[in-house]
Structure formats: C-alpha cells, structure tokens
Records
---
Amino acid sequence: MKPNRKKRNQAYFRHHRKRVIQRKKRLSAHRGWVVKFDGVFSKGKIHCSCWMCSAKTKRLGYPKSELSRIASCQEQLLDYDF
C-alpha cells in the first residue's frame, strides 16, 4: 500500500465518474451515436477515426524505441544466412 494515500470519499469518485460520462456522451452525440443507458460510458474508451481521437502512431509515426527495435529486427534478418 502506498504510504501517502489520500482518503477520498464516495462523492469524489461519483463526481469524476459523472464528469467522464458527460464528456463521452457529448462526444457520442457529436458523432450521432445512440446509446440506451448512460452507464455504458463509465467503462472503456470512445474512439473515432478523426485526427484528434486516433492513435498518435497514425499521426506522428512510431516512437524512437519502436524504430530502433524494427531496425534491429531488419538487421538480424539481413545477417541471417539462408
């Protein structure tokens, strides 16, 4: 257990759950999605294919660590004798 754990009451967590649900409802209404219950938005993530919601790799490419890993894999394939 963490030594400096903050004591937060149920109202705190209820507030943030409501805040997250409202944000996701606003996004879904913008996209034209129809959802029967609001509680569906309490779990998981909402993604659309717009440039703001899509994964960063689509926009910015792979991170440096992934590029180095890909380069090393390709180098190993070139060094391998068939």
Note: The first helix runs from residue 10 to 31.
---
Amino acid sequence: MTDWSPHTPDGAARRKDVGIGDGDTPLDELAWARKVVNIFVESGGAAVQLPDGEFVDLPVAERARRILQSRETATGLALRNRR
C-alpha cells in the first residue's frame, strides 16, 4: 500500500512531484523554465550548455515553454474564477 500523505513517517515534508499543467508548479521550476527559455532564445535557438552544466536543446526548451504556458493558463483560470 502506498502512503500518499504529504509527510514522511518522521514528519519531514515529502517532495511533491508536479506534472505540467496542474497549476501547482513550484517556484524553483518556474525560475528554471524562465532561465532556460531566455538562454535558448539568446542563443538563437542553438543548443547551449548552462553554467551549471545542464545541456539545453530544443526538447528541453520546449518543456520549459510548456511549464511556463501551463502556469500562465492556470493563473488566468484562477483570476477568472475569483470574479
């Protein structure tokens, strides 16, 4: 049986794996996505290696764009639902 509680047995918070489009993207993932998209655009769409060693090519840049788009969509829906 899987324990789906948000905490481990010792009380520490579990890392939440978040899928694209669920409107609950962690801020560090959003920062990563913004950085990747900006650097990829600055490179003119060429593959590039980030200072931390991560390799960014078209599939990685597209994933980052989807993360940003899903957040924009979720934010827009949340704002519309407040009205």
Note: The longest strand covers residues 48-49.
---
Amino acid sequence: MKTEERSDSSRPAEEPAAPAGRAGHRPDLVAAGVGALLVAVACGVGWAWQRSNGELQAQWPPLLASWNPHVGPGTPAALTVAAAVVAYGPALADRLPWRRLLLTAWATALAWIFSLALIEGWYRGIARRLTTKHEYLRVIDRFDDIPAALRGFTDHIVVGPPGNWPAHVAGHPPGATLTFVWLDRIGLGGGAWAGVFCIVLGASGVAAVLIAVRALAGERLARRAAPFLALAPFAVWTGTSADGYFAGVAAWSIALLAVAVTRRSLLAACVSGLLFGWTCYLSYGLPLIALLLATVLLITRTTRPVLPFLAAALTVPLAFTLTGFAWWEAYPLLVERYYQGAGGVRPYAYWVWGNLAAATLAVGLATAAGLRRTLAATPSAALGALHPRRPAPTAEAALTLLVLAALLALLAADLSGMSKAETERIWQPFYFWLLPATALLPVRGRRGWLGAQAGVALLVNHLVWTGW
C-alpha cells in the first residue's frame, strides 16, 4: 500500500539519506555512558545526602521513590509489549501507511503505559493514584459552585488559613482541578476514570509529536522516531499522573500550530491557541511551551497564524480572570506555598543536577545519544535558521531546532528552582519533544537502542515504588 505523501512549500526539504550516521556508534555509546554515570552519581550522592540529614525529601533520589523490588499483574504484558516493539517496531514504522502508523503508535503507547501501571495492580497502579491526600480528587466537593470556588481559589493556596488546598491543587492553576470536576459532573467520577483519562490523553501525545515532526522535519524522521515515542521510559509516570494529561494537551497545541503553518489552516491555528491557553492554566511551568511554539514559526519562517493563535489563546485567561481567578496573583502565592513545604527544605545544590539525572531515566539512554547528535548539529542549524537569506532548514536541522527548544525549556525550568525533585513526572510535556532526537541515530542500531529504552522503564517500575 502506498504511503500518503503531500507537498507543501512551507515544509522543509527532506534529506535523501539517513541522518547523522557520519560519526559512528562510539560517540553515541559514550553519550549514553555519560547519562548512565550521571544517574549513578546522583543515586550515590543522593543516598548519602538523604541518609545524613534527610534534606532531599526523597527516599531513593534522584527519583521520588522508595526501594521495593516486585512483580505484578502487568509484568507479562509489559515484557510482551517491549519485546514486540523492539522486534517489529522499526519495520512497521517504515512500512505502515501514515494514518495507520499514528493509530498504531498511540495504541502501542496505551498498551505500554497501562501494562507498566498494572505492575502495581489496578487499584494501586491506576484507581488510587489520583485520590491520595495530595491530589485533585480530594477537593471535588468544594467545587459545587465553580465561580465561587474560582473567586476564592487564591485564598487557599498558602498554608495557614483554614481549608488550604492539598499540595497538587495549590501547586497548579485551577484548570487542572476543573478537569476532574467536569469529569465527575458527566458521570466519570472517581480515581479509575481519572486515571484512564490521564493515560489516554497522555498517550495521544505520541501521535501529536509524530504529526508535528512530519510537518516540520519530514516523514522519514517522524517514522524513525515513532517506535521510541511509543516505548518511552517516562510512561512509568504517565500512568498515572495528571502530568501525562498536561503533556498531551501541550503536545497537541504544538502539533496543531505545525499543521496550521504547513496547511495554512485557520481552524488549526485557533485550536492550537485555545489548547496553549488551557495548558497555561494546567501548570504554572507550562508557559515555557511557548518556546517550542516559537520554534515552529522559526523553522517555517512565517508569522501567518500568529494573530488567530493569540486571539484564541487569550480567551482562556480572559475567561478565568472574568470568573475571578488571576494567574499573576496566584503564582507568587504558589511560590510561598512551595517554600513552606518540601521545596523549602530540598537543597538546590543537589537537585539542580539531580533533576537532570531523573530526566535521563525518564527519556532513556537512546535519547541521551540522540541529544549528543542534536547538540553537535546545533551551531549549523541555528545559524541557518537565523540567517534571513538561507533556504528553509533541512529535515535534520528542523528536528534539531525543535529538540533544542525543548531542551532549553527544560533547563529553564530546572534553573528556576521551582522543580526540585519529582521532575521525572513534572517535565513530561518537555520529554515528549526530546525523544525525537532518537531519529538522528543510525538505522542499524535501532533495535538495540529500543531495548535499552524498554530496559530502563522495566527496571525502574519493578525495582522501586514511584508513588505515581
């Protein structure tokens, strides 16, 4: 069956040869080794630091986890999914018609996330996760009158006044909590429905990233990245945390802007803007997604969809502000609340680099190798993109710029000091856009790298209890 193709003058030209094979395998293995060493050092230093004074507020740093070797009902399924993707994923990604590839990648990601979550069993792995004392479902009954709850939302962020919000409710704008309130209103209340919702939306981000990569960097690189996206190690934390849902929404905002540019779609630009506006009311850190959105415009060298995008995006803060919640008033209170809790105890000196070790576990060693190739290609890609008389970026350069934007957003979040620990979960919206760096790896070693990715997720999920 023929693969669907289309021509678009605003899409960068695809390179005819496999990307980034020129440097051989050894530098990639060195990059993966450096990533593994960073994790090992973070574990050793973190264990000693936590044992000495408890300041890290994490039992198994750099992850928020506790040592608990175990197997469970999802173990056979997780091993089966991993083996199937390693054995057949690259070939299927090359051969399947494009739309079928998108559905297959989404379905595979769903199977992978569910099987990993079910290692803890249905109740402990999915149904209970969003019902604990820190989570959103604990306050559903306080949103019977939604406008009143929004008007008084900031009054309950800081610890002190009666009725302060649980940690995750206080730590996010009210869009996050409202999602679960609305699910409850339509009859999908409780932890099980909330967990399934987050997993399904989180897995859909795989399709969104593939659509964006195809639009900006060509179909060949999107197909190369597909198995790695479907078998992402951070699936351990997508099932089940609300951050998986946040990552899915952010991914679709970026994907639709890429579609708006390459297909000149006003509707796609407007929906992208709405989703970005909503993303900013899901997490205070996600306005950083604007860096990726700006990179989409940089790659395609157009500002055509900016006005409809902004008009749609601004409707979300306007609606919240008119209802009584002001983002800019809530954020300083969140900072105060953050330092009232673990954020005020956890030392920046460890977590500013320990976070990167946690990120390495979340994206896997193949991504570390891909990022080496991304950084090597950055100078020429950046110079080409910023030079007004240069032609449109090549496929490899476009992908480099997109991955680099995600990396810069992640580093900005890290340096802010507002993400000390738990970044294996919190940074999922950025991890999605680091994984396409694996498309730059040589074709011949794809199965080995996929096996390494799966191995990281399986080891983490079977050796520690993550709490998500």
Note: The CA atoms of residues 14 and 391 lie 13 Å apart.
---
Amino acid sequence: MKKLLFCVFLLFVFTSTVYSQATIQSNKEKFLSDFDLYYNILKKAHAGLYKYHSEQEIERFFSILRAKINDQTDLISFYNQLSAIASYIGSLHDSVGLPDSLKKEMYLRKEYFPYPVKLIDSKLLFNMDGKAIPAGAEILSVNGTMVKDILPELYELCTADGYNTTGKAPDINSKFPWLYRLKFGPNQEFKIIYQPYPGKKRLTTVLSASTYDDFKTMFANRHSLALDTVLLRKHAFEIVNNGNTGILTINTFSMGGPKNPKHLAFKEFLRNTFSTMRDRNIKNLIVDIRKNGGGSDPNDLMTFSYLAHKPFKENAEAFTIFQDVPYKQFIIPADTAELKDLGEELKDEHSECSNGRYYQNQKFNPLWQPDSLAFNGRVYILSGPAVASAASLFGSLAKSEGNVRIVGEESMGGYYGHTGHIPLSYFLPYTKILVTFSVVDLKQYVQPNKQIPAGRGIMPDYKVGQSQLDFIKNKDTVLEYALKDISN
C-alpha cells in the first residue's frame, strides 16, 4: 500500500511539473503573441513609426526586446518592454496601460516610495514639508542606486516627441513612486542619501514604504502646491507693470470645436482681451502656456491669429497610412458605427493617396489670416516641459515667425511636427494591456531653425528654470525673468 501511495505521489509530482512547465511555456507564447500583435498594429496604423528612426532601426529594436521574452517574463516586465518601445518611437501621444484591476490591486500594497519629488535642473528634489527630509533637499541615491542612473530607466516609461527627455519631467514629478516600482520592483523601505543644500554634508535616512494611495494623499499636500495652484488657472488675463504689460495665461486648448459653448466663450475671452490691450495701448504681452498640454482645433490657431503678422496654416503636410481601420477586433471601443464613421472621416479628410500614404485634403487645412486685433507690441511666451500637442504647435508657429521671445525650457511637443489628431486604443487579448496612439503624422507650418535639431521641441531663446533655492522659496523664476527683461 505504501509503495502504491509513493508511486501515486511520484506520478502527481511528475504530472504537476509537466503541467507547470506547459503553463509557463504557454504564457511565454502568449506574451510573444501579444508582442507581435502590437508590432503589427503599429506597422499598419502608426504613421509616425519611422519618424525618428529608420525601418531597420525599429525592426532591430523590436527584435532585441522580443528575444528577451522567456519563461520568467511576467506582466510587469512585459509592460516595461512595450513602454520602452513607445518611448523609443518618440510620440507623446503614445501610451501603454496596465489593466485597471491590476493597478487598483497594486496601489493597495505597501511597496512605494512615500513622498513626492520634483526634477529641477537634472536634480531630484524632495517635494514635501515637515518630513524626514527637508523640502528642496537633493536626493542623490535610492537603495544604493544613484539618481543619475535611475532617471534613464524611468524615462523608458514616459513618452515625449522625438529625442526629447526634458518633456519626461512632468511624469517623474507626478508619479515617481509608481514608475520606480515598475522598474525596480517592490520595496519595504528606501535608504536615501541626500544633500540638504549644495555644499552641505550628505546625510542618510531610511523611509518606510507606503501604498500608492497614501502617496497620492501626500502629493495633494506637496511643497510646490502653492505655486502649482497659481499656475493651473485654465485661462486668465491681468495687467501689471503700471499698466504697460499684459499677462495672458492659457493652460489648455481643450474647449471643443467651433460650436462648443466652451470654444465660443474662449473666443469671446480672446477678443475682449486683445480689445482691452489695444484700447489701453499696452506695449508688452506675456503669454504663459507652461501648463498647456494641448487640446482641440481651432483653439490653438485662433489664439495664434492674435500674434501673427502674416498668413499661416496648421500643417505643411499631414498623412495617415490607412483609411480602413486595421485590426478592428481589438479596438476599444469596438463600436461598428463609430468605426464606420471614423473610416468615412479618414477617407474624406485624407483623400490624396501617394506611395502608401493618404495625405490631407487642403480644404481641411485653410490659410489663416492675422486677426484685426493682432498684437503689435513685444511678446514673451513662457514655455516648458509640459507644453505638448496643440500648445507646442501654437508655440512653434510663434517661434517660427520670429516676433516673440521664448522664455523657459524645451517643450515636450516637437517643433517641426508630431503624430497626433485621431487616437486609437487597442487591447492586447492575453495581457489585457491597452495601447493607445494617434494616427495622423503632421509637419507643422514652421520655418527651419538652425538652433533646433530634428526631433526636438521648442527651444527657448532664454533658457530659464528654477534653481534649488527658487524651488524651496516657491519662486516663479520664469515669469520674474520675463517681467525683469521688460522693465530693463
């Protein structure tokens, strides 16, 4: 009897082992299946896939990552690989998302860096008051890894146009603990080496991990909140400097199309603003778009018409690489009527076929004229890493005309163009990962600029950002620089 039980036990162990190996092998094959599907979708639908890298370079990059998928690959490491691809392609409209159910479950685990940070001048600064580390202290290393080595790893989880890394700072600032967890795994504690201020002695402390939800509570009370809140008004206008300078803040172009009430209200706001400046003979204008992540047409173009001095267009060229949506069965939402409408829209707007590309019909790219109230004084545009999409188009048009001074830091959005307009979202059937990208590749209506290489954002005429001391004081360094330059 004992011998029989022993044989049954051996059979059970053998069967379990074979089943386990078969399951692992099956998982590997399913990861490979989702990986190949993602690549094939991109080749069929992503017009900007070869915008910054040749077809051979893209193929090589995919091959290297595909070869890394093995029996030990799990969902997080697979997600990291797809994110690295999206980052490498170089389109800020691309994103990769884990299933919501998994994220919610992960958020509850105590394995995250507990406090907000902020990337200032390539330094990772502690962004919390009254805690173990003073606000503004520079974090030099986390769990034995130098910050200068951590950041490139985290950049692979963030997208920006072209070769830009400046534009990845907003993601680092808002979700550093999440990005660190994805790249470096869970931790129960964090050994931090930091420097309270340049020239001061380096110190060490250990922070206990928190849940991600607890981190979000901390983030809502971060040190920089006071200045961040001031900068986050949707749009506003004020007159300063004894009446000779206007400050126009536009933090979004998401007001909908021509018939949308928000667009109509914004249109009236701009007309009133520029009428006031003409009536009061205001000589200087500061346009603050530092928090503007883009939006919808024609809000960006309408705004630029008040700064323009000659006729302009949105695009020099725009194209898609399909008219019938590929891989419809994996689209979110998979609504037949909606997909049909999208197909009709593409056939109507991108109707001129040449060499496998469907170019925009020029009736959808009209010539704009400067507005009758267009400002003729001195203009400063405040720009920065968060400026993207429609906002970077606005800033690029202004930079191209050459009648403005750009103050701040390089934008996330490209100067010469981007891949945007129509977003598509696909789910990968095994991993349930959601991949999103836009399908129209745009060359913006801008002049070549020797100071701006291909694949870079709007480069400032005056590179200005907070110093470590400015951050501690919550000083708006960029705005103060523009005001001082006007006074001088």
Note: The chain has 14 helices and 19 strands.
